[in-house]
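Lecture 7 notes: from sequence to structure.
We start with the chain below.
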Amino acid sequence: MIAATLLLGTIGTAAELGPDELTATTAAAWRTIIGAGALVAWSARRRVPPWSFPVAPRLLAIAAVGVAANQLAFFEAVDRTGVAVGTTVAIGAVPAAAGLVDLITHGIRPRCGWVAGVALAVVGVAVLTGAGDEVAWSGVAFAVAAGAAVPVFGLAAQRLMVDRPPVTSMATVFAAGAVVLSPLAVADAGEAFATPAAAATVTYLGLATLAGAFALWGVGLRTLGLSAVAAIGLLEPAVAATLAVVVLDEPLTVALVVGVAIVIGGVALVSAPARGSAPSG
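Predicted structure tokens for the same chain:
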């Protein structure tokens, strides 16, 4: 699960290093198309393709809506209120929404340590962003919607894993989302592949930060609850901030150091097993 988060944390750096003419929405649409295609090909190579298992239309619809809503709402949030605030609110909304989904669908009440860890990690994420002068609250609302969509497609994937491997489940989920986003991807194909740099960027985003990351994410989802998976994902902004300093030469600030430390502390609390239970491998 941590390996998946490390890959996801490279999204911002990869996009920043990509060509300026490659817009965020184009990169997101083609990231989904390429990543979903890779997951489908991977599952087919392992002789467990998505089409060899039955899928309830309702579950497929939940997966498609979750993936598409996450992509579209996130980029609308970033456009309205900026990358820092939009990303922070979206990531911060994921564990809270996941805890609610776990409570509603499985009756799992969050542990006190989980609640404290999530709260601490969200504080760390807030510290990482610094204080913004202007916040567009409509953008904040879209960011909350983007974060809330993650456990929606996560729940669909978890349900699919009852009778199929994680990679097949994730392939099914993202293929459903890719179908919804395909019109946007086709319309922006010229932009996505206009230059070798643009093509390399969307290919990396699709193969590494979607196919690779979510194949690993699926393994974690099979053994952990949605709440734990989503909360560990709060490491993503810490990874992204570290890469920004090391790769993009952004300044190393006190807020960055403190924020990373707080996030890691929060994730440690979330990941700690409950008293009397054995730690999961």
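Points to note: The longest helix spans residues 196-223. The two ends are 11 Å apart (CA to CA).
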